[in-house]
C-alpha cells in the first residue's frame, strides 16, 4: 500500500472547515487525514467531546458523510449497531454499496467511560475502525484528567498544587489492552506523521473485522502550547518515544518509526505549559520517573516487536 | 377481551416470554441487540435459538450490556433497520440515558419490557418501578394483562412506532413471572398475515444513504432544542390517533379489540378500580363475585400509559363516585404513586370528577390476592356512601 500526497490532495475530504474546533486542534487534522484515506463511503460515529460539539452545532454540520452522535461512552456500540444494520440490509439486497464504518472517540470516551463499549464491539468482531483521538484529558468539559493523562500533567482535576504536583500515576496502556482482544489490526499513530496515519487508516479499513487506531492529538488549550506548535509537539512525542508508532497485525508487533536519536522526554514536556511545575527543583525526581517509564515502555515494545534491546 | 378465533389463527400454549419471542420471530427484525436479565432472559434465549436455527433473517448482537444493547439499536435504527431489544429492571435502568436519545432521534425501536422491581434491595420479581421510572423518557408504553396481550401489543407496536406521524420507540410491558413465566392459551396469526400487517420499514433518513449524508444526534443549543422537543411532544400526541387506528386494523384480522384501556363492568359502577397489567385479571374475578352480591364495582384496565389518554379517561370516569387507583410502583413522593398522580390530574377538570384513592401494592412480587382487591372495593364503596376518603394513599398487603 502506497500513499501519494499528490493523489491525496486531489481528494474531496467529507469534513468541511468552518467548525468550531480551536486553531491547531489535533483532532480535526487527524480526522481529515483519516477520512482522506478512505476510498469507499464512510459512515462515521463520534462520541461526545470536543470533536462532536464543535462540528455538529445544529443546523450546521462539518460532516459531508453520514454521521451519528449518540452519547459519550457508546460510540463503539452505536457504530456496531449501524454495521449490524448494514449486514442485515445488504443481505436482503436493500443496500448494494460497499460502506465502511468508523467510530471516533476522545481519550475520555475511550480509555475511561467508553472502555466497556469498545471492548464489547471489538470482541464481537464488527467490521469497523475505532479511532481514539487521545489528547490526554477531558478537554470539552475544561481539561479534567483522564486515565490517558500523562503523569504530572496539570489539569483542572489534577491541579499542580502545593502538596500534589499534578496528575499522580502513569497512563493506562490502552493500545495494549485493545491488542489483547486479538483483533486483526491495532496501531498507534499521530497526524504529525501523516503518511503513517493515512497508511494505517487504509490498512484498518481493509482488514476484515475490527481495527483500532490510537492517535495522539494535541489540544493547544489543554497542553498550553501555541496554536502553531501542534505538529512540532507531536513530532517530539514520537522522537522521545513517549508515543511510539507501531502496529499489531494479527498479533505481530512492528515498530514503524525509530527516531535516529531518542530524545530525552524533557524535550517533549518543556514546551508544554501543563508540565511547567515539573521543572521546579523539588519535582526533578518526577521527571526522572517519567523518563524511566518511557524507557520501560519503549523497551517493552521493542521486545514485543522482536527488536534488539540494549 | 374474548379469545374469539378468527380464520387462520393458531391456538398456542405459551408463556408471556415465549409469546413475545414468537412475535419477534414473526416480525423478523433486521437487527436485535440484547442482554439477558431475569425475568426477560428467556426472550433472549428463545430468540437465540431462532437465529441459530436460521428461522429469522435477523442480525443478532449479543452485546456486553444493556447500555450497549440500546446504543446498538439506536445505531441500527438510524441506519434504517427495524430494530428490537428487550429488558427488565436494572437492565432498563442501565439503558436510561439512551432511552431518551432513542426517542429524541425519533427512532421506532420496539422493546418488550418484562416488569421487575428495580434494585435495591435486589429482587427479581414483578413490580412496575422499572418502566414507571422511564415514563418520561419519550417512549410509548403499552401494558399487557396476559400473554395474548403481550403478543398482540408487540405486533401492533411495530406499526405504531414506525407510523410517519409518530416515529417514536415503544415499550411493550408485561408482568415479570406472573405473565412472563406462566403458561397461557393464546391465538397467534400466521407469519404471512403478520408480515403483511407490519409491512417493511421505510425510514425517513438513514445513515446508509451515503448519497444524502445526514448528521444524527447533533449538538442542539438554545436556538433549536426547544423546537425539536416540541415536535417530539407532537409525535406523542399523534400517537393518540395512531394507536386506535392500528388497533382497529388489528381487530379486523383477529377480532381482538384494543382501546387505550379496557372497561370491565364499569358502565354503572360506583367504584372503578384503575389498574395495569396482570392484576386486572384478578380484579375482574373479584368484581364478578361482588356483582353477584349486588355491589357495583368495575375495572378500568389501562393499556396505554404513554401517551396518557387524558380526554378518554375523563369520559370514562366522570360521574363515577370513586376511582381507586392501583400503583405497582412507589415514587417516593410521600403523596402517592405515578398512576394515581397522572389519573388524578387528568380528571381534575372533569365536571363530575370522582373522588380518588391510591393503593400501592405488590412491590417486589408481593402477591396480590382476591381478598386484597375486595378490601379495596369495600373501603371505596363505603367512601362512595359517606362521600369522604380519610386516607387517600394506602399500602396494600404489606406488614406495617
Ligand atoms: C455520561 C456522561 N458523563 C459526562 C459527560 C460530560 N462530558 C462530555 S464530553 C466529556 C469529556 C470528553 O473528553 P474526551 O473524550 O477526552 O474528548 P475531548 O473533549 O478531550 O476531545 C465529558 C466529561 C457526558 N456528556 N456524559
Ligand atoms: S479545547 Fe483542545 S481538544 Fe477541544 S477543540 Fe480546542 S484544541 Fe481541540
Ligand atoms: Mg480528550
Question: What secondary-structure arrangement, pairings included, does this model have?
Answer:
The complex is a heterodimer of chains A (310) and B (400).
Chain A: H1 5-10, H2 26-36, E1 42-46, H3 50-55, E2 67-69, H4 75-91, E3 100-106, H5 107-112, H6 115-124, E4 129-134, H7 174-179, E5 185-189, H8 194-206, E6 211-216, H9 220-223, H10 230-239, E7 246-249, E8 252-255, H11 265-269, H12 284-304
Parallel strand pairs in A: 1-2, 1-3, 3-4, 4-6, 5-6
Antiparallel strand pairs in A: 5-7, 7-8
Helix pairs in contact in A: 2-8, 4-6
Chain B: E1 10-14, H1 16-27, E2 31-34, H2 41-52, E3 59-62, H3 66-78, E4 83-84, H4 89-104, E5 110-115, H5 129-133, E6 140-143, H6 147-162, E7 170-175, E8 184-188, H7 191-198, E9 215-216, H8 225-254, E10 261-264, E11 271-275, H9 279-292, E12 297-302, E13 304-306, H10 310-317, E14 322-327, H11 338-346, E15 355-361, H12 370-386, E16 393-396
Parallel strand pairs in B: 2-3, 2-4, 5-7, 6-7, 11-12, 11-14, 14-15, 15-16
Antiparallel strand pairs in B: 1-8, 6-13, 10-12
Helix pairs in contact in B: 1-2, 1-6, 3-4, 6-8, 9-12
